[in-house]
Amino acid sequence: MRSSGQPTINDVARLAGVSKKTVSRVINDSPLLHAETRRRVETVIRELGYVPNPQARALALRRNFLIGLVHDNPNAQTVMNVQQGMLDGLRGTEFELVVRPIDRAAPTMLDDLRHVLERQRLFGVLLMPPISEDDAIARLCEALGCRYVRMGSALLDTPARMVASNDRVAVAEAAAHLLASGHRRIGFIGGPAGFRSAHERRAGFEAALAAAGLALGEAQVAAGDYSFAGGQAAAARLLDADPRPTAIFACNDEMAAGALHAARARGLAVPDDLSIIGFDDSAIAAHLWPPLTTVRWPSRTMAAAAARKLIEDEATVPTHFPSALIPRGSVAPPRC
Amino acid sequence: MRSSGQPTINDVARLAGVSKKTVSRVINDSPLLHAETRRRVETVIRELGYVPNPQARALALRRNFLIGLVHDNPNAQTVMNVQQGMLDGLRGTEFELVVRPIDRAAPTMLDDLRHVLERQRLFGVLLMPPISEDDAIARLCEALGCRYVRMGSALLDTPARMVASNDRVAVAEAAAHLLASGHRRIGFIGGPAGFRSAHERRAGFEAALAAAGLALGEAQVAAGDYSFAGGQAAAARLLDADPRPTAIFACNDEMAAGALHAARARGLAVPDDLSIIGFDDSAIAAHLWPPLTTVRWPSRTMAAAAARKLIEDEATVPTHFPSALIPRGSVAPPRC
DNA sequence: GCGGGCGTAGATACCGGTGTCATCGCTCAT
DNA sequence: ATGAGCGATGACACCGGTATCTACGCCCGC
User: Fold this and answer.
1) What is the C-alpha separation between A68 and A48, in angstroms, rounded?
2) Which domains does chain A have, with CATH numbers?
């Protein structure tokens, strides 16, 4: 009578001589079970290699076990770190990770996202920056009954729905590092307007300058877009000024790499003629020449915490995760 | 009587005054439906915002709509490209992508993987290199009734279960590029033993040398491990030889980046004193200085094709995807 | 001796879909 | 007239789990 295919709860019940409900109790570690019965059922489960069907469970429990990662992040390494972190946080649970990159620029973005969330009925999603900063997306999740946690560089939501670094403090630290090396003319390559992280990082930079009695003049600031090419163009503008800056802080590593290229193209040696600091501690940071001094964003740890926040009710998971300066070889005292 | 929550097929049936089966026929585009009935049901579906429950569907159909990506690849950009490609291939279908990095080095790896495949009952998985080269994993998928497609640098399986580049040809082309520039002493940084891609790339390299009447001496070869540090160490060995090579081919970009560092550490200018070619066209390739000449592995296109192979029965999806040389700035004629 | 409480297990309905087969009203060839 | 064939629809069981409620045996106090 048994078909081929994987064994079901009915097969286990029949072979163990109990009802399906009893098998269900064994699976779910119900305390009201005779030890002997439990043992017998467990033996059959092992012999049959029975594994509960998650779809059936999801249907009966009216909830599923899919956690989504929604992102629109140009930085592959950061996304991978976050994925890895989420898997860390989900380890040992029955939740599975599904990934959904979206295109923030597409006009149909919100509809696409709604479509996915409705169709798949995800249990919850992690929103990565920059889309984590979009309140419309958070509201959409809420409206669809999908739990969410946002990952960001500052507290944008209630702590239960947020894991946050403190980019402001970390960037201030980086700027202080440059100031301590003797730099006074420091260029700043910002992130795209509307990105909270860009805002926070600039605020931290300005605060550090202010603490040293310096102001950030408009000529020292160039807008970037978190891309390599954008960093290159921004650095070109900064370096063509007279006097040119002796150091540059870029709001991410990609742009810092672009700044490095721009410096090279002008015959400037790094770090002797120009010091550079980036942000993210992405893979390229260590692989550039010279290795890039940067700020590490604790993406993996944060993502793991975010995943636990999604699946746990208790609010014992921390919300704040400090970023840290990683000194490498791209900073030296100014020559002149 | 209606609870809150999302509307179900029963709600639609009741409001449209038809049976659930008829609603099911509308959802599944059954041809045996009166146009008027279909219209009426569709109207109710739209008004209610009804979306079929994928878990219930999966249960009734005895198959689900989850496609997995299993990888153990150190290169984040490649993994992201593959993810993106799979989503390209899955677009417009009801399949969802789940991601599962595994640790090939862990002794429990096969058990972990078995656990995941059994629990989630994935419809199919895409195996990325290097684990795609592991026949034990492929056999495990087969034993668990999980379809799979392997992605690799040569045809390792039947075409229905494979998408392949032809690394041998592409590397021969890269080597020919160096030879055409006038190089005769060309070092080779290999990949880890046991990696098919490493084997293929070396074979292509040797073939190109042979075609030019050259042999690959053991002194010209250094073993690498596809990591930055490994490439650095291997290049160091090659560059300390006398006479040193005037060009180096590295089996991936990470190692090429390491070679670049090793050259810098010895005061050698790239490309004037040393030409370098990598493989992968990963993000760092374009961001290094000088921008790295490399071979593009068509990961996104291949992954899209692999995804379609997984979900389609017809064997109309192509299996071979040529790699292409991307000339940038790291190759020049030898000085001496 | 008997009702009540407790621990253990089963019967049954249900989650939200799909497959199978029966039904019903037509048209059309005989 | 009649029944075969066909298009459109519904009734019902089923997928593999879980929740709810009931049943049963047993010990207890009265």
Assistant:
1) 32
2) 9-52 (1.10.260.40), 61-165+299-322 (3.40.50.2300), 167-297 (3.40.50.2300)
